[in-house]
Amino acid sequence: MKCTIEELGSCRKKLNIEFSAEETSSEFNTTLKSFTKAARIPGFRPGRAPAAMVQRHYGKEIAEEIRDRLVARGYHDAIAEHKLDVVELLDVTDAHFVLNQPLAFSVTLDVPPQFDLPAYKGIALTGTKVIVRDDEVEGTLKGMLERQAKFEDVTGRAVQKGDLVQVDYVGMSDGKPVAEIAPEAAGLGKMDGYWMLVEDEHALLPGLGAALIGATMGETKQAEVKFPADFSRKELAGKSAQYTVTVKAIRERKLPANYESLFKPFGAENEEQLRARIRKDLQALKDNQEQRQRRDAAAQWLLANTKVEVPESVVQRETQSNVYDVVSQNMRRGIAKEEIETHRGEIFEAAKRTATGDVRLRYILHKIADAESMDVSAAELDAEIQKIATQSRMTPQQARSQLQKNERLEALREALRRDKSLDLVLAQAVVTEVEAPEKK
Fold first, then answer.
1. What digits encode the pLDDT tens for the residues 217-226?
2. Nearest in space to 253 (alpha carbons), one of 165, 334, 321
3. Terminal-residue alpha carbon distance, the chain
């Protein structure tokens, strides 16, 4: 067998494989003997028919078996001879067996990239000094009190920002009821006894709450609602509507008088201990956020300083997965399929950019792990499976069994190995800490 290799790219190769006429003839003789022993031809006992008759009777089947055997053998022998690590088998050209003639075919495949690592030890990074300010503790406490707030009926005053009001409303746009323009979203056109918060954000009808400020119980007001261009209901996107709104009830937010209701959930005996616990929790949260940002910075440094081209077949698979995730997320958000289709090209390009970066980083981290002789211990793998089990509400045994069934256990081990590589790069980095900018 002869094998020559064509380089079709940094990660793509074409194997041109050829068996000589002598080799194909030898394979023919072996295969014909095998068929002759098992052949059942009328007028002859099994295995007693002449070889020439067997050849005439089973010629097509013999040729196909020889072709399949030689293609499989040639491929595996070529991979072993040239010590190739195959990422994906892309194409095998048709091979045709002809007696006493050579048999040639080609195999196109993707292989891992060959590249040099940069000097990844002691890289320079910039990080933010983690400090928990007093106003952050105060803001957290205030937010926790607000989540425990109750709304109580009020009389004798007008609607204020932050109130919970009950209203009846009906909307018109371009001389037509909004309910007719968007029949599948009836709540946008008309509602009776609807409770709404008077706030600027997260309003069902943009600007309606602001228009109610100053209204009194029983008062009817006219309010204009301008739907944004990207409004979820395409029938109303970019349009304006006039709403007639009647205020039926007003409730104001009442906060707890003190922090005592928070002591028990945080294991505190007084306000001082509560503040200390909040500060500790905020510190841990900000430490984790900063650690993630530094990991991202280390990953970006590796990508920017490593010249590596990756297998296109792997990028294509990753891109398809990313596109599927984006489309699924948008559909869950209620975005129409037609709207998603109009941005198909943008979604694909963004997904491909992300996929290319992710695949490049995986190969870089894998090579660092090899260079550092890193491995994942059984205890580390067990700990990660325990996390997966907890998140999925399964036992560790069930989680492991599912990973094995889906052939994902080795992928999990490799992912942990890459994480350890990035941890090593970050641990040995020279990080210059800067003060966080003051929030306005």
1. 999 999 999 9
2. 165
3. 74
| Sign of the Cα pseudo-torsion (368, 371, 374, 375, in order) | positive
Q: 270-302: per-residue pLDDT in tens?
A: 999 999 999 999 999 999 999 999 999 999 999
Are 165 and 196 within 8 A, CB to CB? Answer: yes
Cα–Cα–Cα angle for 78, 81, 84, rounded to 5 degrees: 75
Q: 310 in a domain, yes or no? A: no
372, 400, 376: which is closest to 388 by C-alpha? 400
Whether residues 37 and 74 share a domain: the answer is yes
Distance between CA atoms of 167 and 347, rounded to whole angstroms?
41
In contact, 203 and 179? CB cutoff 8 Å: no
Domain extent at residue 40: 2-110
Separation between Cα atoms, residue 267 and residue 91, nearest integer Å? 64
Tell me the C-alpha distance between 381 and 377, whole Å. Answer: 6
pLDDT of residue 200: 61
Is the same domain home to 14 and 48?
A: yes
Which residues, in sequence order, are bridge partners of residue 164?
197, 251
Continuous H helices in 259-377: 260-263, 271-305, 312-332, 337-342, 344-371
Report the pLDDT averaged over residues 164-188.
91
Strand partners, 168: 246
Instruction: Report which secondary-structure segment, H or E, holds 140.
Output: helix 134-147
Query: In angstroms, rounded to a whole number, what is the distance separating the alpha carbons of residues 285 and 303?
Result: 27
Element (H, E) at 37: helix 21-38
Structure token pair of residue 249: 């009830």
